[in-house]
Amino acid sequence: MSMGLMVAAMKLRVGNPLRKLVLIKLADNASDVGECWPSYQHIADQCEISKRSVMNHITALCEAGLLRKEIRKGGPKGNSSNVYFLTLDGGGAPPAPGVVQKIHPGSAAGSPPSESPAPGGSAAVAPRISNSLEPVMEPVIEPIAPPAPAEVAPVQSRGLVLVVDRTDTPRVEIPADMPGPKDQTCKTFKIWANYAMAYRKRYGTWPVWNAKVGGQLGQLVSRLGADVAHHVAAHFLKTSDAAVLRKCHSLNELLANAESYHTQWVTGQRINGTTARQMERTEANLSAAEQAAQLVLARRQAGERNEYL
C-alpha cells in the first residue's frame, strides 16, 4: 500500500463516486511505484459493487490516463492476470489505445517465475514508467446570472408588445381578446401578460381572470419583485412536473412555491420528481464512497497493514 498514492487518489475528481472508490482500492493495493494486480472479483467484493461495474470503471480510468493495464501471461495452465499501474503523478504517456503488452513470468520485478498472482495482489518495488495525468473534472452546474428585466414597449398602432420570457426572445403582439388588465401602469400587467401568453401557447386557451387571480399576482410581484416576477411566471409554464400538469399550471402552485421557481429560472433548471430523486441518489452514492475512502485511509494511517503485503 502506498500512502502517497492513497492521498493523491483521495484528492482527484473522476466524475463518479464509485469510480473513485475503485481507484482508491487500487491505490490501497499498489506498491510505491503504483503496481498491483488485484482481480476484478476481489475489487468488486471490497467495494461492494458488481464485477461488471468494476470492469467498466477500470476501463474509464485507463481512458482518463489515471491507470494503465497490462495483461500478464504465465502459469502452468497458461492463466493470465491483469497488472495495473497507477499514473497519478504525471509521468510518461500511456500506451496507444488497443495495444496490449504481454509480460511473461519473471519479467516483472518482485514476481517469482513460478508464482501466480494473488487475487488481491500488490506488487513489490519495481522500476516502472508512470503515465501522464489527465484530470477528469466533475460536471458542475454553474448558475447563470439572471437576465436584465425586459421593459414592455409603449403602445403601438397594432397593439401592445410583450417579452414572453428572456430578453433575447422574439417580441409578440398581445391579442385584443386577452382577459385581464390592459393598462401598462398596472402593478400586475407585466406578470399577467407573460403568464397568460405562455399559458395560451401551451394550452391553446386563455387562463381565467378574476379578482382572486389579480390578488395572487399582486402577491407574486411583492415576493419576487416587479423586475423578475414576469420572467418567473413565463418560466413556470415550461415546467413539466406531473403534479403541476394535473392542475394545468395553476397560479396556486406558482404562488405556493414562488421562490423555488425563481431559483429554477435563475439557474436554468427544471426540477421535477424524477430529477429530484436522481440528485438524491447521486448525493447518497457520493457520500457512501467518501465515507468508505476515509475509513480505508484512517486504518492505513493507524498502521493497519494490507493483508496482501
What features would you describe in this structure?
With 309 residues, the protein is an alpha+beta fold. The chain folds into 2 domains: 3-137, Winged helix-like DNA-binding domain superfamily/Winged helix DNA-binding domain (Arc Repressor Mutant, subunit A), CATH 1.10.10.10; 161-267, no CATH class. It contains 11 helices and 7 strands. The strands form 2 sheets. Strands 4-2-3-1-5 form a 5-stranded mixed β-sheet. The chain has a two-stranded antiparallel ribbon with strand order 6-7. A hairpin with a 7-residue loop joins strand 6 (161-163) and strand 7 (171-173). The longest helix has 29 residues, at 273-301.
Oligomer: single chain
Strand content: 5-15%
Task: Name the CATH superfamily assignment of the largest domain.
Answer: Winged helix-like DNA-binding domain superfamily/Winged helix DNA-binding domain
Low confidence ranges: 90-118, 123-142, 152-161, 164-170
Distance linking N and C termini = 7 Å
- The total count of helices amounts to 11
Please state the average pLDDT score: 74
The CATH topology label of the largest domain is Arc Repressor Mutant, subunit A
Q: Report the sheet with the most strands, covering strand number, pairing sense and barrel closure.
A: 5 strands, mixed
With strands numbered from the N-terminus, the spatial order across the biggest sheet is 4-2-3-1-5
> What is the element string, with H for helices and E for strands?
HHEHHEEEEEEHHHHHHH
Portion in helices:
40-55%
* Global morphology: elongated
Rg from Cα? 30 Å
Number of strands: 7
CATH C-level name of the largest domain: Mainly Alpha
Name the structural class: alpha+beta
> How many domain modules?
2
The CATH architecture category of the largest domain equals Orthogonal Bundle
